[in-house]
Amino acid sequence: MAVQIVDPPNTQIVSQGFAGGVNIRDNISSLQADEAPIMENGVLDEKGVFGKRRGCMSMGTVGASGDRIISSYTFYRGTAGPPQVIVQTSAGTLYCTNDPTANPQVWTVIASGLSGTAPFSFETFRHKCYFSNGVDYYSSWDGTTYTTYPSAPKSKFLRLWKDTMWAAGVTGYDDRVYSSNAADAETWNVANWVDIAQGDGDQITALATDGNYLIVFKRRRHMVIFDPALFSNRIVDFEKGCESHFGVGQLEGNIYFFSRQGICQYYGDAPSRIISMKLDPFFDPRVVNLNALASVWCYTFGNDRIGWSIPEVGSSTPTVQLEYYPRLGALSPYLGTRMLGPFVFHRFPCQCTARWRYGTQDLLFTATPLANKLLQAFAAIGTDDGAAFTATLETGALSFGNPDPTKYLRRCRVVGRGQFQVQFKRNFSPAAAKTVPIDLTSSQDLWSIGHVWNTGAWGPDATLKEIMIHPDVYAKFFQIRFTDSSTQVGRKILPVGNVRYSLDAGEWGVYLLVLDGHVLGVRD
Amino acid sequence: MMPRDVTLTRDEVSKWFEEYTIEEPDQSLRDFLIDKINGLNLETTIVDTTVQEGLGPTTELADLILADIGSYGSPDS
User: What is the ipTM of this complex?
Assistant: First the structure.
């Protein structure tokens, strides 16, 4: 009897980008095609691409070596001068600099003898920066003169709303919101206060505003004051609160805040919405330090990212960042509204931040909890204050749509840039079955006048390249991990019409992944 | 009057407290405040506190100050 020999069926997986972001909630064998369980130190600023982030650049020191920056703020002064970055250190000193981009930065003492543990809340009003922390006197700084207002409420939180300064967090008055006189943040009348949800056992943790209302956050709920004259107020959400005054941020007209339940988007006319459902397991007391969530600090960078620096369990200062990309959310075909965007994790030194825009520059500065430094975040550098960091992308478990049989992974084609490693993991094992170093940085042999005829190629060299590797791995489930140990920076190309801008970027990026394999038989 | 109509500032009241030397505030503090407020010759000393959950529809200005007295701190704090 003749035997018919048949090749095992060939099958292919083509990645669909990574714009779904990180998903640590769902089973890793049932993630969406554009999601991944591990995304750290990478950015999604090109939709579908996972690229290593840029590093944090040292700009010199502030104060003594043991000092740490505990709060920071950018004081914009209009045409009166360049914006000043103000920082408060653990030594209880308040400094400012006119040029945070100078290296080394030059710091001027505004005041000393202040609290080194209670971070200041800052607001700018009528050409002055006002600040308060619940311990020291409510104060102002006009760029040259420091003034205190001993009779003003000693509040932890300040917010400017409706031409008026609002304050909360006075010791002993957990529910009370104070208001300065209208158009005068230095005069506080005796009757300008209101208790919000009085005696509910909760406490005010943050003040925010969308311009129309003053949002009063407690830990387990939030309310708004909608009439600045009568202090009339109403409940917005009786279930979700905010953990940190510094954990509230605005991007694209939306307000986002850090809640015990997750990252929330504020609506005002309806309860706020949790937008971090794919990260639900992260908001666990075994992962985040519930007792230090008042230190959560929100930042924005560029036009598309908003992030939160969060303390993990065992740390009283932030250790990990959660970054959200609202513009990458799909558009709803019915309402035209944008659906939820993706998140990624970062780990960079960040106790607090200050966004600074002046002249041609729009930069984010981050205070490291490891040194007395205000670093430039996402700078054109491949380290975090000299320390190497690793970016990692690990896919969900891929089974070629057929989980039962064993598969042979024959080829893997990667389109990307930079230098990194590809690791192939089998059947949920944490160990890599195979590691392949990839270098897409090397230039082609390009033509020059010193070359002989017919060697090399016309330039310029491509930034994006593809490479074929042969994993030669058998498994039922594969996970592909991209990682690195590089301290370099890379570049990416941005075409604007026919002009190609070469922009600094993290060392590497993965644009496309194609896996070719064979489905074999069912094996033990 | 509405709370915003009260023109008395915390600064002024803080200075009053510098004159008040009794360690444990009691009825005498209320009397002291009422004396001081009467000296201001306000049209009324009754404040509309409808919006305040812990207070009645109206409250004497001295009582409103007393309800917030802990936020003033001691003069040297």
Answer: 0.94
